[in-house]
Amino acid sequence: MLDFAVLGVFIPTFFFVSITPGMCMTLAMTLGMSIGVRRTMWMMIGELLGVAIVAIAAVAGVASIMLNYPTVFNALKWLGAGYLIYIGVMMWRAKSTVKLDAQSQLKVSRQTLFSQGFITAIANPKGWAFMISLLPPFINIDYAIVPQLSMLVTIIMLSEFTCMMLYATGGKSLRLFLNQGDNIKWMNRIAGSLMVAVGVWLAVS
């Protein structure tokens, strides 16, 4: 199982990455304001399923390489560290506002909402690259991988769900907060700093 030191790094890192406004969070807020939180949960279910599949596939693939091709894994480790640092720097430099398109969501069916969330999560190449880079450093191959992966995926899904609910229920107040002053910029910088720190940790570990 994961130790508390590992969890102490992973939980805040992933939470701040999740809470930073992105495609899924903005979609949750848009739907929450236009069709209500209850119906928005169909999109959330699809997104959570997609995220879980991406996380499991990413770790399974990297774990296989880790066990069978250690030299290749070391190269991937450095590439992953570089990618995390790059993403962190880009988040530091990002200047964004939250844009909503509520009208186009008013007549969406449950199936469409589910598919929208699922496809958003599973068809995003940046999401795959992020999971491949971030998750493997927190897996210890000296212990059973399945319990560790189960714990990490559970944390990921709880973090994603919590953040989507905050966006969906926050509505106009949250939108005003995010678009006010430098609030988004500072959220991006906190998440970016954590990403850079994890990237450096991965490179030197």
List descriptors.
single chain, 205 residues, mainly alpha, 8 helices, 80% helix, globular
Task: Give the gist of this structure.
By secondary structure, this protein is mainly alpha-helical. The protein has eight helices and no strands. It has helices at 4-19, 23-34, 37-68, 70-93, 110-122, 125-134, 145-179, 183-204.
Describe this structure in words.
This protein is an all-alpha fold and about 200 residues long. The protein has helices at about 5-20, 25-35, 35-70, 70-95, 110-120, 125-135, 145-180, 185-205. It is built from 8 helices and no strands. It is globular and about 50 Å long. The mean pLDDT is about 75.
Indicate the topology:
Layout: H1 4-19, H2 23-34, H3 37-68, H4 70-93, H5 110-122, H6 125-134, H7 145-179, H8 183-204
Radius of gyration: 17 Å
What coarse outline follows from CA principal-axis ratios? Answer: globular
Percent helix, as a range, is over 70%
| Major beta sheet summary | none
DSSP strand content: under 5%
